Amino acid sequence: MEEVSRPERCVVAVDGPSGSGKSTVSRRLATLLDGIYLDTGAMYRAITWAVLESGVDLSDPDAIIKIAQETDLSIGTNPAAPHFEANGVDIDAAIRGPEVTAAVSAVAAVPQVRAQLVQFQQDIIAGAPRIVVEGRDIASVVAPDADLKVYLTASAAARAQRRSAEDATEVQATEADLARRDKLDSSRAADPLRQASDAVELDTTGMGIDEVVAELVKLLNSKVSK
């Protein structure tokens, strides 16, 4: 793998559906850059955790907005050990649980929640010299001026296989859940999952982590000078 460029300031936006490999390769790239890493999906999961803890109805957007506004989020951006707290509670494990996974698309679809978190994300990006940001709407909404915009994708079967291996779940059920989330995320009115027109699409089906990271390094080097 070629040596990565480390400009004084650099923003890399990585978008794509669940299971495309965003988190793993984004963390690796951030480490190579001596930069920080922001998992925006985890921020929506954190708010979803708070909503579920409060017991409010997921079909009540006003109640969800109120919880989002009242929740104090602490976002760790160390790519080696990203850490999340909500109202002082360690939620690293909780936000990856099935309850949050099942509810996060509904919470993330609320426009006011998205507006609140997008502003939070943009503030973090503005204060970072080098950062890799991953999510669903980074290149299109959060960081439209990013130095490198990448849309990672993979076949439905490959994504389900990866996610089921991570979560120790049954592949067929995982594939059905990913399809459900893809549909919700792509069809929501506010900031839907989509590939930015100037993003590079990278299909990671059949690619190993090292191969994907090497390709991202190559793409980044072509955009910035050492």
Helical content band: 40-55%
Q: Per CATH, what is the topology?
A: Rossmann fold
- Which class do the helix and strand fractions yield? alpha/beta
Structural domain tally: 1
Q: Strands of the biggest beta sheet: in what spatial order? A: 2-6-1-7-8
**What about the largest sheet?**
5 strands, parallel
Strand percentage, roughly?
15-25%
- Mean model confidence by pLDDT: 89
Any idea what the radius of gyration is? 17 Å
The poorly predicted ranges are none
Count all strands and give the number. 8
Encode the helix/strand succession as letters: EHEHHEEEHHEHEHHEH
CATH architecture: 3-Layer(aba) Sandwich
What's the quick description here?
The protein is α/β, with parallel strands linked by helices and 226 residues long.
Can you put this structure into words, describing what you see?
By secondary structure, this protein is of the alpha/beta class. The chain has a single domain, classed as 3-Layer(aba) Sandwich (Rossmann fold). The chain has nine helices and eight strands. The chain has helices at 22-32, 40-54, 61-70, 98-108, 111-126, 138-142, 156-167, 171-187, 209-223, and strands at residues 10-15, 36-39, 73-75, 84-86, 89-90, 130-135, 148-153, 200-203. A five-stranded parallel β-sheet has the order 2-6-1-7-8, with helices on both faces. A three-stranded antiparallel β-sheet has the order 3-4-5, with helices on one face. A hairpin with an 8-residue loop joins strand 3 (73-75) and strand 4 (84-86). Helix 2 (40-54) crosses helix 3 (61-70). The longest helix has 17 residues, at 171-187. The radius of gyration is 17 Å and the shape is globular. It starts with 9 loop residues before the first strand and ends with a helix. The model has no long low-confidence stretch (mean pLDDT 89).
